[in-house]
Amino acid sequence: MHRAKMAVQLSGQWLIVGGKTPSLYVNENSSSLYESRVENDWVDLDTDLYHWTKSLRPVQWYPGHIAKTEKELKEQLKLMDVVIEVRDARIPMSTSHPQMDSWLGNRKRILVLNREDMISTADRHAWADYFARQGTKVVFANGQFGMGTMKLSRLAKALAAGVNVKRRAKGLLPRAVRAGIVGYPNVGKSSLVNRLLKRRMCPAAPRPGVTRELKWVRFGKDLELLDSPGIIPMRISDQSAAIKLAMCDDIGERSYDFADVAAILVRMLTKIPSVGIEALQNRYKIDVEGHCGKIFVHKLALHLFNGDDNQAAFRVLTDFRKGKFGWIALERPPR
Ligand SMILES: Nc1nc2c(ncn2[C@@H]2O[C@H](COP(=O)(O)OP(=O)(O)OP(=O)(O)O)[C@@H](O)[C@H]2O)c(=O)[nH]1
């Protein structure tokens, strides 16, 4: 629900009910003013998230196979004509690997924001504008149903076309273009490969860490794809990012505390302009008190789960992942 709907008029000005500091909405018809307020809400949210996560036990997840993958992948990347970097459209910043730029150098690159079905149109526009301004080629995709994959294969072939021009000039026979698919765990790499091939060649599952080995697959006679296990930094230095990875189910469940993560998700949802307090209250028939996520999760536990906070937390996380609060990104581009 739109936050502006919670506004009450006070001496000719609009005040938002339930905000931390009441924001001022002068006139709902003034859309640019409204948009800039919404943007400010997102900026505030990033700062808040930093404070909320500061005192938590650090979230770290680095399963054994990742170190081996990283080493092999760095070697294989040298053979690639083009690299397809897949990120989770809900958290494009938190699923960007800090070392990716240095590994790829000036290699040709396509950025895929997968899980496009899990964000709103406004989120999509915001990210499309941001990457267009940066001159980054971005494809929005859905690995589950295949949207965006035709465009992706066209773009990969077009970007790597120069390879065979050079080979011909040297008197060599043309060869298939090599494209490597890289990204964080569970962002949908294997699903995209399977959709591209229209066959289930790579195991895909709803939990991080399923792909364990690098795997070459052939797509027609023009394209070879390398599917790879998810990679993630050994230490996630940004704990706000780590918590968002947990919310989106992009890291192993054992690495975080459900109740902590769900409590922060509740606080975030109350502040995300398109969700707000009422979405939570309507769904669970429980009042949100003073934006406190922990109290909310505990009340839900008493209401539905015999006081078991863990189960209540899992319910909130699952509901978010299933889009029960609407399809929304947890990140907006930096300004
Ligand atoms: N809703 C939605 N689900 C998706 C999308 N792409 C993939 N999935 C689901 O997300 C889960 C993870 O997908 P995978 O393809 O296994 O992800 P991966 O990046 O290969 O995962 P790792 O093996 O951990 O590296 C699966 O249950 C997919 O069905 C998408 O665009 N939208």
TrEMBL record:
CDD domains in the record: YlqF
Gene Ontology terms, MF aspect: GTP binding; GTPase activity
Keyword Nucleotide-binding (UniProt): yes
Chief place where the protein resides: mitochondrion
Transmembrane segments: none
BP term (GO), one: mitochondrial translation
Coiled coil: none
Family, as annotated: Belongs to the TRAFAC class YlqF/YawG GTPase family. MTG1 subfamily.
UniProt-recorded name of the protein: Mitochondrial GTPase 1
Record organism: Ficus carica
